[in-house]
Structures are given as structure tokens and as C-alpha cells.
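Study this one:
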Amino acid sequence: MTLPPLITQMLSSDFYPHPVTEPIALIQTHISFVLLTGKYAYKVKKPMNFGFLDFSTLEKRHFFCQEELRLNRRLAPNLYLQVLAITTDQDRFKFAENPDNAVEYAIQMVQFPQENLLINLFEEGKLTLDHVRDIGKQLAEFHASAETNDHIASFGTAAGLKAVADDNYACTDKYLGLAQTQTQLDQTRAYTDQCFIDNADLFSDRIAQGKIRECHGDLHLKNICLFDQKVQIFDCIEFNEPFRNTDVLYDASFLLMDLQYRGRKDLANAFLNTYLELTNDYKGAVLLPLFCSMRAYIRAKVTSFLLDDPNIPESVKLQAQQEAAAYYTLAYQYTLLTVGKIFMMSGLSGSGKTTAARALAQKIEAIHLIHLRSDAIRKHLAGIDLMQRGDSELYTPEMTQRTYAELLNLGILLASKGFQVILDAKYDRQGLRSAVIEQAKAHNINLEIIYCTADVETLNQRLGDRIKANSDIADATPEILASQRFEEFTDAEKEYLAN
């Protein structure tokens, strides 16, 4: 493997004006060299032009180094330090004091232990539900504050996103028979084409709702780490506006797909439902199969590019071929029709419905499972923060009716699209339960009722503990519990009760 002279010199400790840890490690992607020196990491962009990415000139590499610094400081300000110019002096490269003489540029970052990359934590079995929930919270906050304007929003049209998908397909034709099959390509392309036609109005609605933002664009486990005992999201897309300026759910779908690809639907569901509960973006979730298919195809495409790089060892190329083939297959699998189902939780406050629902979400082998909590829906309808305690107006009969109506509408919408849906609410009244049963029957959706119960002493203890911890969005208190009455299941309802 022949390396450029600059990279060869950067592998030597005397290149740097600071102490280094030897040997200096080199990590390559299809677009950059990353050198790990101990305290700092340096990224140098390869002079490549893939069409969707153009680093072919020094001026362009400088611009995109500056963009990478700007964009990544939004999510990981403590990791990204500065852009450094590199010059030559008698055939020796060095960091330049005068950027006017630059022959190359490098991004200086704080180096973190490679074992702290989430992909490495995952492979060691150390990636936890708390980690992915933390990512869901960070991403929800980031998307809420990320920039949007008319220019950014223009990338969120059905035509704009279809152009991204079409470009992906065009870039991978040469890998047919190597990592991709014609059957999978034809089915995946036909599915995405139809989705853009069927959901044209939804894409327009999402633009109007401000859902198109300057996002991360490349959110997967290799681009997230633990640093300063906190999850840090880094290495966003700086080189391509259509990849970065996009629908927030398309951004989130990359990590969702990545976790599903790695066989951890439990982690995927925990991440997704944390994100959706905070953003209330449930209606947009119908686009997730499309978005996840596109994301899997992008990973397949990018991995396939390694097969063309003369600097990549043959052993790495063989692994890349197998990985790309798996991603192409996953992109195809997202296009297959699935059968939806509704799980209706039922029981008084403190009976363990949410705990049971979360446990259920970890067990169900579904590509997409949506956990709808009445506590979250109610507060979203009222326009208040989820952790804010609701006053009496939040719990009027009218507000309760609106909450259960919204739960039912969302549940039917998502289940009819093939999602597994958990409706997490008391459902303590026969009328509330019968409404779900009737709509499930009308839409040919399978339904299961999961009843949670406990003695009064336990219920009060749980509610008291929850209030003291102040770590949950539910507002129920022992005083509220005292006013609750559960209407017994009818014979018709008992047919749907889980064993």
C-alpha cells in the first residue's frame, strides 16, 4: 500500500510540535486519512471527486475543512479544535504559520480512546439502553435548534429526496453481481419511486412544519463516541448540502437502521421511541421504512467505494464486499410489506404499564415498534414541556377525550402501515377500550390487551417513589389514584386479553 508523502511524514513523531504516542495510528476512510497521535487526532481529506463529493482542489479541501469545523461544533464543540494549514520546506511538510503558503490542510481534533467509539462498545457488548436513549435526547434537542430557512427547506421536497435516492442507485450499478443483485436493486428502486408518489402531500406538510433542517447527515455508531463521560455525536456531513439539509426523521433513521442492521432491535426501539416521545413526530414516522431503506443503501454505496480504492488492503476489501452486500439486502428488506399490530396497555396509575410496555418493546422482533404514552401525547397537545407537571386544566374530561382520540388515531395510522404499536394509557373505561377494538376491527389490525394490576399499597408506593425521583413525565399521585376506578373487562374484551 503506497501512501502519499504527506501522510508518510505525518506517521513520524518529528512532524508534530507536541509529544506523540508512538506508533502513530492511521485510519483510512474512502475520503480521508485520520492520524492518531495520542492527545490529538488530525484529519486530512483525500483529493477525491465522487460527484456527490468534490475534494479535488486545495481550495475545496480548505473550504470543507472549515465547514467540518463549523458544523461539528454544534454537537461536539469539545472535540473539534481548529483547521491547520500545512506547507513544505525543502521536501519536508510542516504545519504552516502563514496559511497563504498552504499546500494542504488538516483538522485538529481532541483524540479519544478508540475503545470509546460506540461501534467498539457495541462489539464488546457494552452499548446500553441508556446510551441510545441519551442519543435520542441529544438528537431531539439538536433537531429542535438546528438551522432552517427557505434554502434548507428546498432540499426536503419529494423530488429533492428522490434525487438523492436516484443518485445512490446510479452510483452502484457497477457493483451488480459483486455486492448487489439486479432483483434487489429493481425492487428497492420501485419501492422508493412509489413512496415519493404516495407521500407527496406528507413531504409538503413536513416542509411547512419546519421539519427540514441542517442536520448531521451521517449518524451511525462509527460517528458517536463517549468523551468526558458523555455521548458525543461527531463527523457530520460537510461536503454535500442535499445529504445534510434534510428531513429530521431521515437524519434519525440512519442510527435506527444501523442498530437494526447489527441485530439489536431492542436498542433501535429504545432510541426511536425516546426521540419520537420528545419530538412528537409520530405522523412522520410512516416514512421510516423509506428513510431506513435509503440509509441502508447509502451505507452499501459508501462501503462499496472501498472496493475501488488502491490504497485499501485486499483483506479489507473482502470484508467491505460482504458488508456492502448485507446493506444492499437490508435496503431491500425494508421494502417488504409487514403486518401491523396494536398492543393496548390497561391498568390504574402505578400498575406498571410503562415498565411492562418497555419490556415488551425489547422483546418484540419488529423492524419498527412505536410506544405511544398518553402522558406524552397529553402534554404535547397542551404545548407544555414533558417534564412540567400539569395543572388541573391538563386533566379535564375534554383534555382526556382529546388525548385518547389522538392515541387512537396515531395507533391506527401506524399499525395500518405495518408498525407494531403500543398504546400506553390507563384504558380503565370500557368505552375507551371498545373504541380501539372497533377501529382495529374496521382496519383489520390485530389487537392484544395487556392488563397490569397491583395491590393498592404497591400502587401508592410506586407513585410516591416516582414523585420523589422526579424522573418521569407522568403526573399521577396517590391522591389521583384514590379517585380512579377500573371498569371490569366485558366478555368481548376478554377475547383480546393476553395470557
